[in-house]
Amino acid sequence: MSTDLQHQIQLHAYHTAEHAPFEWSRGPHVALLVHGFPGTPAEMRPIGRIFADAGWSVRGLLLPGFGAEFPTLGDKRCSDWDAAIDAALTDLRRRYVRVVVAGNSLGGALALRAATAHPVDGVVLFAPFWRVDNWLDALFPVAERVFPHIRPFARANFADPGLRTELRHFLTEVDLDDPMVQAGIRRLTLPTRVIGQVRRAGQVGYQVAGAVTAPVLIFQGRRDPLVKPWRTQRLARRLPNLAGYLEINGEHDLVRGVAPEWSVIATVLRTFIAQLTVAHVAHFTTPHFHEHAQ
Description:
Blueprint: H1 3-10, E1 22-24, E2 29-34, H2 45-53, E3 57-61, H3 78-95, E4 98-104, H4 106-117, E5 122-126, H5 135-139, H6 142-146, E6 149-150, H7 161-170, H8 179-187, E7 190-191, H9 192-208, E8 216-221, H10 229-236, E9 242-248, H11 262-278
Parallel strand pairs: 2-3, 2-4, 4-5, 5-8, 8-9
Antiparallel strand pairs: 1-3, 6-7
């Protein structure tokens, strides 16, 4: 076992119960929630509560290689993530009247692909990833051979409140002020091929978007540094049944209930759920595009 992998295990990332998959039985309709990268079902629980409060059952899926299995992520492919979603949707379709799939970031790309393979009744996307504008993306697949591993936190500034919040999402039981913990986090490594698989999932999601016939609701942060609004607008225009596109004051983390306009997200999502609950939605009002910050 490599020293870096030992450090990853010693930090006990994602080992608390909130990161485990979950299922809540509430009613005859169900929402399948797909987390992002490098997240877990924990990030989707606030979205799940909105569905549950509306009388929908909820399943929070843990993708293969994520959560407590994070040290194995380098062995996974996007086809493994697709297979897990396919199995879940096949099971849920047999048991429930209506099925919605909701995805965050990477989960959004995976949800789009799944919506072309299964008869879902609706799709909800939060900051849907399909491409990142950085040097690593531009140089693939050459970068994968030249830089087989990356250290995403090698230059981490542990005084940055934003970074500390993100680290707390998966390292809930460590002291971020401990120099040994900080050193361990800086040594965390990620195989570059994982980035390639995430990239591939985004490409597929974008390519198949035009074949998604279910109504799709999109939430996008105006200040998102990872998934840029103009890219999500481009993706939205490919969807033949766009139910709505809401661009709000926020960054990339829209699902945890802490976004500046979380109440707006919750209200719009409740309306969408209500429309799906009363009937199979054939027509929605024309969505309004907020293409620029207000």
